[in-house]
Structure formats: C-alpha cells, structure tokens
From TrEMBL, chains A, B:
This is propanoyl-CoA C-acyltransferase. GO terms for biological process: lipid transport. One of its GO terms (molecular function) is acyltransferase activity, transferring groups other than amino-acyl groups. SUPFAM superfamilies: Thiolase-like. It comes from the Bacteria.
Amino acid sequence: MTNAVAVHGVGTSHFGRQPERDLVALAWDAVHEAFTDAGVEEVDAVWVGTVFGPPGVAQRVLRAMGITGIPVITVENACASGTTAFAEAHEAVRTGRYERVLALGIEQMSTAFDGAITPEDTDPEGRTGLALPALYAMAAARYLHLGAATPEQLAAVSVKNHAHALHNPRAQYSGRYTVEEVLASRMIADPLTLLQCCPTSDGAAAAVLGPATGGSREVRVRGLALRSGVPWNHASPHVWGHDIVRDTAADALAAAGLADVADVDVLEVHDAFTIGEIVTTEALGLVKPGDGGAAAARGDTALGGAHPVNPSGGLLSRGHPLGATGLAQIAEITWQLRDEAGARQVEGARLGLVETMGGGVSVLDGNACVVVLLEAP
Amino acid sequence: MTNAVAVHGVGTSHFGRQPERDLVALAWDAVHEAFTDAGVEEVDAVWVGTVFGPPGVAQRVLRAMGITGIPVITVENACASGTTAFAEAHEAVRTGRYERVLALGIEQMSTAFDGAITPEDTDPEGRTGLALPALYAMAAARYLHLGAATPEQLAAVSVKNHAHALHNPRAQYSGRYTVEEVLASRMIADPLTLLQCCPTSDGAAAAVLGPATGGSREVRVRGLALRSGVPWNHASPHVWGHDIVRDTAADALAAAGLADVADVDVLEVHDAFTIGEIVTTEALGLVKPGDGGAAAARGDTALGGAHPVNPSGGLLSRGHPLGATGLAQIAEITWQLRDEAGARQVEGARLGLVETMGGGVSVLDGNACVVVLLEAP
C-alpha cells in the first residue's frame, strides 16, 4: 500500500548575503513559515539538504527550534541536495514509513566563500583551477561556436530572470537590465559576464509533506526522479549536464504519467549560469535542441510566454544557497500552483516542474539531478 | 507489500592511519570485497555515510569503480553515519524501491585531524575547547564519583578490546595489555588515558543488501531503529548518550520482535572511549545499571563470556573512521553470524546486534543512534 503524497506547506528565508545571520536564524524563518503554512506543530522525521554545512548542522538548527528526538538525516547531493531531501521525504510518506515529514535545505555561503567554488584538486579540473563558472563557460563557448546560441541570447536569460525577480521580495537581486547591460557587466569566465552568474547566497527553504487528502491548499506530488551522472567528457555529443537532465526528466514524466513536458505550465530550473537554463530547457524537451537561447530571447520562457521558466528569478536572481535551492524551487512552484505568487503568478498554472542538477566531479555528467512534477489542488 | 531484507555481502578496508592512501583506494577495498562476497557486479542505488568527506566524495569514489548513473545519496549522522546509510539502504529494499542496494561508509581522518574533534564553536562546549574526549571524560568522572565504576574497570574494557583485536588482522591496534598498563598510558582527559580513547583512523566498509531469499550465507536484518537525541544536560539523571541508546535499542528490539536483549549472542557497540562501552551495555539492558564496568572486569563481555561485546576490537582497537564505523560493525556481525570470524568467532552465534551513536551538539543526548539486529542464515 502506498500513499499519494502532497506538499502541505512551504517556507523560505530571505535569500542573499546574510553573514550577520546564522543558519539557525535562516532555518527558523523557513521552518516556521512551512509549519504555519501546513497548519502543523510537529513532524515525524526530517531530511536536511546541505552541501557545506558542518557535521551535525541539521541537529543544531533543529535543536534551536525544539525539534528533537525524531529521526533526522542529513543528505548531500551537490546543488540537488535540497531536492534530494525532498525526494527522500516524499518516499517516506509514500511508503507510510512516516506520516508527516519535513524537508529542509540550508546553506550559508557568504561566510565560507570569497569567490567561485573550485572542484577538488584530486580532479584535473580542480588541479588546473577550473572553477564551476569556467565549466559552464566551456558549455557556453561551445554553443556560441556551433551557432546554437548568440551572446545576446545568453544575456536574454539574465534579463528575463532579473525582471522576474522584481516581483519576488525574497530575491537577492533584481533589476530591469538590457541585453547590452548584461553583456557589459564584468567578465567572469568568457563568455559569461557577472550578471550571467548566480551570486554567493545564504538561505533556507522548507516543505512539509504528508499524505494527499484532497485539501484545498495541498499541492500533490505527481511524480519525481533522482539520478546520478554517467561518464562524460568534453568530447561528448552534448555539453555537460544535458544528458542527466534529459534522462531524469524522462523518468519523472513517466512516474507522473505525463506524455509531454509541454503540458507543464510553470517551471523552476537550475540556472546557476545563463547557459545552464538554455541547456536545461532543451534537455527537458521544452524547446527544440539549439532553440533554448532563441526561446528566451523571444520571451517564450518569460512570464506571459508559452512556458514560463523561473518566475522567482531563478538562481541567477533569487540566489543559490546550494542546499536550500531545491526547496526554494519547490516553494515557488507550490505558491504558483496555489495561485499565491502575486505579481509573478502564472495564470491558471495547474502543473509545475522543479529541476535541480549539480556537480563538478570530473568525468561525470553531474553528481545528481532531481526532477519533481507538482500538481495544483 | 514489503520484503524481508538480508545482507548479501560485506567488505572493509584495513583500518588505521593511512594518509598515503586516499578515499578512492579505501572505498575500492571495501566495495570490491562486498561485491565479491555478495556475488554481484552491480547494484541499483547507493547510500554513502561520511562525516568529514568533502562534497561529492561519494560520486568521486564510486566513479573510480565505474559505479555511475544510479541514485547515490550521501548521508551524515555523526558516528552513526555508516549505520544510517545501512538503515536507508534497508528501507529501500524493504519497500521494494530498489532490489539491490550498496551501503558504503568512508572516512579519512589522518589527513584532516591532528588531535581530537572539537565541537562547533557556536556551542558552549566548542567555545570552551571541550573536545569529544572531555565530554566522555565527564561521564567517566561521574561514574567514578558515584561508585558506578572504578578506574580499573574502565581500563578492563580497553584490555579486553585490544586483546580481541589480536585476532582481527584488519584492526588498527591490538595488544595484550594489563589494567596497569592501560592506566599508566598518557592521560588524555582525566580519567581517560590514551589506551581508553579510540585512535585517529582511515577506512571504509560496505554492505550489499537485497531481499532475503533464504540463501545459506544471507544474514537477515531482523529489525532496526534510528533516533536523534532529545534535550540533555549535565544535570540529567543519566550521563550523555545513555537515554538515546536505551530508547533506540527498545525500538529495534520491538521491530525485531525480540523480548530481551539477553537473547543476542554477539554485539558490536560504540566504544569510542571505554566509558562509552560501559554506558552502552547498561543502556542496552545487557547488564544492570552500574554493573557495566564490573561486567567487563569479570569477563562477561569478553570472547568466551556470556555476552561478547566488540569481538573485532571495537572502535578502541579496530579504529574509528567515523562514517565507516557503523558498516565495519555490520561487517563484523555478518562474519560472526556466518561462522567466518576465525579466531575471534563467538561459537554458535545466531543473533547479533550493532549499535552506533554519536554527536556532540550541545544540549542534545547525541545527534543520532542506530541499533540493528541481525540473524544468522
């Protein structure tokens, strides 16, 4: 016997550089809001996603809220840590292991990093100082070389997501930029300029999951999938991250009983860099191969377009506190499917998709990818 | 529908200071042995327990063995990280989520630590420099003060476990020590001397789990439980770690349908410090309150005694690479229940117990505790 699973409540902290706050304070904001939203005062178990949180960080932040004595499991899966916590919480409710479960994502990066994350020096990329922006920049350079995107189309993703974030009071950054302003911002890793890279962020996000009972504010988990990467190198047919997203999305759509990703009304995807969103929309099958950049430039993926992507502002604008990101995406889609997203609401959204992928282990097409399909009450 | 779950194979690296080896090499030893032991060449998913492993370490060590493309989830739960990975792998097989799952524990401490692990400085213990040995020393001092143990009884645990380790070629340390020699070794945290403290260790351990099919070498998972700590302070009725072990063991015995821990033939428990084993045998209900030290001194918990504890040598002698420890305990009990433990074999052992607890978050009675009951083929 298995249960249909629903998101009963979500919450997040503000996102941004908040070195003066600690993880306890950030987690408090997210959990308090999620509990209030779900109308619960306790849960039966907790999964916590974090990448750079120190050992015991989950128990430490939960202790501060009086959440003790129940099973707590900390998971790490690169940028997909938060959505991995969500996937594990979902499985626990689905199988009846626990009735009500908290999935929490936490990360404080401003106190840990001065600049970009560098891969481990046991990997060739790490040894040569090839930080994450450079890995994405290589994908972007290949797109430009092949004519699969133009610099202006890369920039269009940043213009769109920063404009979306104007309507998201929790976002780290927002602004009405032009393509020219994005291209003129400081070069980080050619061809990716500053406004095409996600910022250093602190934040927390949470979701309370339980059995679906048909409640008027319950967002149902229609299906999800989790994968790790397979061998990949720079000579592969697709750029880094394409295949793992494509395959995870296919698994998730099958689990949800959906034939076509075009049926999805609103998406939050992993746009750590502008090229990331372009590759992802193509890998998801939302747009044709090589049309991701053009679709962004045409406004197809903007609010009001055919397939609105990252109405929250995405990682580029909302911020990317690694372990929290996946659950921030879940929170945004939950609000969208409940018609609670205010000025960034996608009208009539019934089906939503969350995609998070991340990694940086040499010769692998990503450490992990999670795709979740959520359905309106 | 749920499956009865069995351990199909186990493996470990050598344990000890091995800074010249890396986690890939250590993990290879453990996984290769476990796969060979189980007679399998692949698994459907992997849970990896580690405390200080860097982000992505699981994918990195698995990549080196060609284990890619399947779900991989890294978990952290202090000293119980390895047994938490085991508990999650067990749940996945029990519910039919995956058919065959690898639980892997990895830790390289010699390259990360010069001395004892200090709690986070956001906790009062951490701020005052109260490292883990000091936390255990306070429990030991209280036992001595109350007359619940003598210095000689504390030392007897070390004498016993180091003698057990003489028969374990994978152990970090072993030796025929006298009580006097243990007490005369260098003072680490009064009253705990060097030989009463687990060493800095590197190692890996693994188990392959799958449905129980009645195979002649399958060790069945009879029941298990996982808990996190509840509020505790130094004025509590019991010393740190007692209550969480007691309650987790009660859960595990209930899950296994066992009325009495005395039915267990062989145990591997968390003896990070001598006082830890004494508290644990009492909390498990194996010996009466206040009789843990005397039981060790009498030989009740030695090989040949009524309740052999830590035939492997335990953490004190085998070593304590945090994330690997729980699975090293699982491996030892698996060998014992298959009558494959050589000179340290507990004759006719039919029921075995693994207990791991750990933590160091202020005001909590441990971050986590896992108790597993295993049954002979």
